[in-house]
């Protein structure tokens, strides 16, 4: 058999997917939860096809990023996990102005991610550019923040209905959901 030499873009053999689901299960068990974390799984999802083109559609933005709170400790790029920066109720903001949203309250891979590009969790500037170029009809007047308190019940019974009501108030045709 011929010795295979990888091309210039081949990943090294130890470059494998990070087992996030197993890491999270272990994390919750380490915190003292008796049973393994149960992942939300649904056989049906309430998505519908667009009724008009993106160029004619009003697009909403939903993010799990949190507004920066100066009194809550380090929340900048690369900050350690900061649970005090979490939020527990849906919030909204004006899409016509810039906002300082951050993700220190989220559990993400801080070893391999610098978290320096806020477009990854809050692509409002990109949406504005898409609207200016005619790629989308317009950006909804408000964006919305979705809490990440990890309770399926609270998410389904409280947060999702509130987010849906706000999206309907804004008369959006489609939403981009950016969950970090």
What class do helices, strands and sheet pairing give? alpha/beta
Helix content: 10-25%
Averaged pLDDT: 89
Distance between the termini: 45 Å
Number of strands: 7
Main beta sheet: strand number and arrangement? 5 strands, mixed
Strand content: 5-15%
Number of helices: 3
Q: Encode the helix/strand succession as letters.
A: HEEEEHEEHE
CA radius of gyration: 19 Å
Shape: globular
Low-confidence parts lasting 5 or more residues at pLDDT below 50?
A: none
Question: Care to describe what's here?
Answer:
The protein has 180 residues and is α/β, with parallel strands linked by helices. It has helices spanning 20-30, 124-132, 152-169; strands at residues 58-63, 66-67, 91-94, 101-102, 138-139, 142-145, 174-178. Strands 1, 3, 5, 6 and 7 form a 5-stranded mixed sheet that branches. The chain has a two-stranded antiparallel sheet with strand order 2-4. The chain has a domain at 54-178. The radius of gyration is 19 Å and the shape is globular. Helix content is 21%, strand content 14%. The protein is built from 3 helices and 7 strands.
Summary, kept brief:
The chain has 3 helices and 7 strands, in the order H-E-E-E-E-H-E-E-H-E. The model has no long low-confidence stretch (mean pLDDT 89).
Describe how the helices and strands are arranged.
Blueprint: H1 20-30, E1 58-63, E2 66-67, E3 91-94, E4 101-102, H2 124-132, E5 138-139, E6 142-145, H3 152-169, E7 174-178
Parallel strand pairs: 1-5, 1-6, 1-7
Antiparallel strand pairs: 2-4, 3-6
């Amino acid at each position: 058999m011929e010795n295979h030499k990888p091309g210039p873009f081949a990943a090294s053999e130890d470059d494998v997917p990070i087992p996030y689901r197993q890491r999270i299960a272990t994390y919750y068990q380490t915190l003292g939860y008796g049973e393994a974390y149960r992942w939300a799984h649904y056989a049906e999802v309430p998505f519908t096809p667009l009724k008009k083109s993106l160029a004619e559609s009003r697009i909403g933005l939903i993010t799990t990023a949190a507004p920066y709170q100066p009194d809550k400790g380090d929340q900048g790029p690369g900050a350690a996990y900061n649970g005090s920066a979490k939020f527990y109720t849906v919030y909204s903001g004006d899409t016509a102005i810039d906002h300082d949203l951050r993700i220190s309250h989220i559990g993400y891979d801080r070893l391999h991610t610098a978290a320096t590009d806020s477009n990854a969790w809050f692509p409002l500037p990109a949406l504005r550019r898409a609207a200016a170029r005619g790629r989308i009809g317009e950006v909804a007047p408000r964006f919305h923040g979705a809490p990440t308190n990890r309770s399926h019940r609270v998410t389904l019974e409280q947060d999702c209905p509130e987010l849906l009501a706000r999206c309907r108030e804004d008369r959006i045709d489609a939403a981009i959901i950016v969950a970090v």
